[in-house]
Amino acid sequence: MHNPYQSTATSATEVIQPPIKRPLSVWLLLLVLGVMTIALAIGTARSIWLMAAYPSVMLSRFGANTALFLALVLFGAGALVGIARRRQWGRWLGLLVMVALTAAMFLMPDTTHYANAAQQSGGFFGRTILMPSLMLLWAYRFGFSRKAKRYFAD
Questions:
Q1: Which of the four pLDDT bands, split at 50, 70 and 90, describes residue 100?
Q2: How many beta carbons lie within 10 A of that of residue 94, not counting itself?
Q3: pTM
Q4: Which helix (H) or strand (E) holds 117?
Q5: CA angle centred on 107, ends 136 and 133, rounded to 5°
Q6: What are the boundaries of each domain within the chain?
Q7: Rounded CA gap, 152 and 154, in Å?
Q8: Whole-angstrom Cα distance, residue 55 to residue 130?
Q9: Nearest 5°: CA angle at 24, between 18 and 27?
Q10: Which residues, 6+ apart, have CB-to-CB distance to 44 below 8 Å?
Q11: For the segment 90-99, what is each residue's pLDDT rounded down to a tens digit?
């Protein structure tokens, strides 16, 4: 006999499950991505203000650069929203941001002046081995760990 007033859940544990907490790796990415997005938004707003103040001097390339920065701001804001709302696409956008940050570490030239060869080799080790390894660990914990999979599960 079917009871129409019975709960649709199969067990009490499904009904009384506490909400899943955000892993530390998600909090860190939200912080880093938020700061980067705010900085890009401020820079883009200043560029647009400069273009409005001096329209005859500005080149078309300057407008293209501003459009690129505006697209990056929208991408960052979208990634923030996706990660905060636990969407799968937010998880993949977050991983894409981490890959871009790691690639930027390799592509940016090292302009540090070292006092001796020991400091130079330490800087090389940190830049080419230690930091990418930490980024790889962070990306794993953000996108593929058990806690992250539970966090982003729909």
A1: very high
A2: 24
A3: 0.79
A4: helix 117-125
A5: 15
A6: 22-109+117-152
A7: 6
A8: 46
A9: 95
A10: 66, 69, 70, 73
A11: 999 999 999 9
